[in-house]
Amino acid sequence: MIKIVVCLKMVPGKLIDAERSGLIINPYDLFVLEKLAKLKKNTDISVIGICMGGESAREGLVRSKALVCDDIYWLNDIKFAQADTIATTKTLSAAIKKYIPDADAVICGGHAIDGETGQVPAELSEKLRITYFSSVTDIESFGHDSAVIVKKDEGHEMTVRCRYPFLLSVDSFLTYASNLNIIALKRAQKWEYKIISSEELGIAQTDCGAAGSKTKVINSVNIIYKKESIEVGGSIKEKADHVKKLLQQ
Amino acid sequence: MDKRNIWVVCDAFDHVDSFTGQLVSKAYQLSKESNGCVQVIFLGNTSEDELKRCALYGADEVVYQHCETKDERLWLDILSDIYSSIGADVIMFTNSDFSKTLSSFFASRFEFGLTADCIDICFEDENGFVFERAAMSDSVQARIICIDSQCCTCTVKKNAFVENVINEVKELSIRKWDYKGSFNTDDTYEVISCVKREIENSADLDNAKIVFGVGRGVKDKETFDLICQAGKKYNAVVVGTKCVVDDGLLPKKYQVGQSGRSIAPDIYIAFGISGANQHLVGIRNSRQIIAVNNNENAPIFNIADVKIVADVKEFIKEFSE
Question: Mean pLDDT across the stretch B13-34?
Fold first, then answer.
């Protein structure tokens, strides 16, 4: 059976819909889950979700479980909080190495809509030392020793056969919630989620969360500098003529 | 005290492109503030004359490694080799897909701080190098420093900095690197088929001298069409704010702002743009900003050179005649 790890991030729902409260599955990650759910119907794959997040991630994990995940590792510890990309990568790679060392494929959404850095997938592939494919737009099939994916590359769209193990960064997304099977959802709610602490994972406090981060936000500023502007008065024709003159210069 | 090494990694492969020029210009400015030495790391295949162009923007040194392929893993190994030997305090990468991957590999390998899509970098005695990028809320910029990291790395947004030819003659040294490792690249995949895709051509926007921006204040199709018509007349490219693009009036590649592109035309005319920070960061390097808005208190006027309080529809009718 092909073992697939999906990295999941929960992001504020209001980023998709101003009315929505709480956290939702990052749309890029949701695309991956839906794709895998379709492929799972006729391929023998096992899908393992891995997510770093607090209690507020539960709802998203329940949906992930109901959709397609056979198993979920929930890295839930205050010590993981406020991690930058380096600390996040270290934590995720530690968990994959410990719990799913025989993963054939690791799949990440291209970026999270709250952080927008898009750097974690590449960083993670370097830490895991597996082949990296970026800008993946589709996953066609999982075979015995390789998978077929579609990726874009400066001006081309390529269909590529990649040998396991590899990591994909997927650049497609869905912003609507899929129709979930109610029974699957109920079952997923009752399922016992494995909560993994930093201690259980065996990662040093100085390697994860804020303490393991290599960057820090010192403050926030407005960098837009005010200019002295010249106001153009007069009739609408005079105003338009003024601008026309500026453009002709 | 030893000089700080400020690296710019060029990813254009066979020439020194204008994006690299922008980064070197910024590195030159930082070198003045921080007592630094600007080093361009050039991997690929080009001539010495081409490399010498780096001096125009203020580079002190070019480290050149000849190679025939543009592969992230290979470049990572070469870059690591150069880094381990000469070291760097700051490394600036472009934010092309290739360099985003390369910088992530590099930061992950050495566990260095990495700030993505910077729109500004400065040096402060107290904080060292400070990187600015949009904060989550978008209305302000986060100022980020590296902690517990020997070297600070970042990717930079295109057109965040202005390409600037310096007015001093610099002695440029070119150091040819002799990478001893393997040049073999990954063969764990096989391309089954490859089709040409329409490239989102951005050259028109990068080189446009005049750009017209459309915001929420442009309420109907007729006004929008008149702006496009005027755009043709003046050879201007028409772009939009995030909400205009979200509404489907313009394709994503014409979105200007933090989550879109940054531009630096000679003249930018903002039609019905209120001036959310998200948009302003993308236009702040324009030489001259003309703003047309019916609300005289619109924030866009704070950064405009020419302020025109008028109804956009009435104005454009007159203007497009």
Answer: 96
